[in-house]
């Protein structure tokens, strides 16, 4: 019997020896590693120097927007942004907190970096919906019931809030239960619900107790509103009642389903 041919012997040897070994990846040379490490250090150092040490990215101006009563100088001086400081080092949160703390008229504020040289301060001021008399001055109250500023004159079109809580009994009990701040918030809720046409002529909101709040309008007209509950319904009823009895002097919407008017 003939033995294996030369070709067959070669195939058997290849099978027994297995596939040729894969080439191992060449390790990066030490020189390459050193160069990359130095480049990374230089890049990081350059970035730090650019942000903190260079003269190019520093605060040169502070812009203020959104003010109505506050002056630009008031906001800038209170913000106390250090001119010439690296822009990246400015603590926007701290500036915002300082502005809200020292200028209570500010409702919200947003401080942003305006690269490469500016800081932007966007202010939203509180809007008074009522004022409280304080001696010869007036304390402004916003729609959250926050007393935020004292001014020498009441802003035009803003009603005066009169706390007339002097009687014992129910009024005193309401004062103990809700406190002055609570009653002020009730008056603020009512101010928000007064129909626009009526709000334009409202001069005073008088609070005698939690559920005994009235409006004094121009021309000597009055409105018994009651509490702040069912405000939208009372507003609709008052509008209809005034149309139905335009010459009336007093309107009662304490129970909006059973309104009344009187006087002429």
Topology:
Layout: H1 6-17, H2 30-53, E1 61-65, H3 72-79, H4 92-102, E2 106-114, E3 118-125, E4 130-134, E5 137-141, E6 147-151, E7 160-163, H5 170-193, H6 196-199, E8 202-209, E9 212-217, E10 222-226, H7 231-244, E11 250-252, E12 260-262
Parallel strand pairs: 1-3, 4-7, 7-8, 10-11
Antiparallel strand pairs: 2-3, 4-5, 5-6, 8-9, 9-10, 11-12
Kindly describe this structure.
A nine-stranded mixed beta sheet has the order 6-5-4-7-8-9-10-11-12. A three-stranded mixed beta sheet has the order 1-3-2. The protein is 37% helix and 25% strand. 20% of the residues are buried. It is α/β, with parallel strands linked by helices. It is elongated. It contains seven helices and twelve strands. The chain starts with 5 loop residues before the first helix and ends with a strand. The chain has two domains: 61-125, Ubiquitin-like (UB roll) (Roll); 130-262, Rossmann fold (3-Layer(aba) Sandwich). Strand 5 and strand 6 (147-151) form a beta hairpin.
Q: Biggest sheet, open or closed, and with what strands and sense?
A: 9 strands, mixed
| Helix-and-strand structural type | alpha/beta
Report how far apart the termini are: 140 Å
* Residue share in helix: 25-40%
**Beta-strand fraction estimate:** 25-35%
Please tally the helical runs, counting DSSP H or I stretches of 4 or more residues: 7
- Overall 3D shape: elongated
Elements, N to C (H/E): HHEHHEEEEEEHHEEEHEE
Return the domain count: 2
Low-pLDDT regions: 45-51
